[in-house]
Amino acid sequence: MLKEIKYLIFIFIICLFFFFTGSFYFSDSNKKNSYRSFSNIEKNINVYSKKIPVLEDDTKDIIEYAEQSNKKKRKSLTFGNY
Hints:
Elements: H1 2-25, H2 28-51
């Protein structure tokens, strides 16, 4: 009997947790605060992007390719012969 009551209380507490979490998440005050935070982040990104310096590309012709022969040397592998 006590075991069933304990499980019922656990399920009730879990349901209350989901109810209060959902009601806060979908509330108007949370939506306003999240929108304000997103707009502030967007403003900060625009301000910082104007301050970023643009670097010139100085990597032209920096890679030198060596000629490779078509014949590859292969090692002969033997197993079991010592």
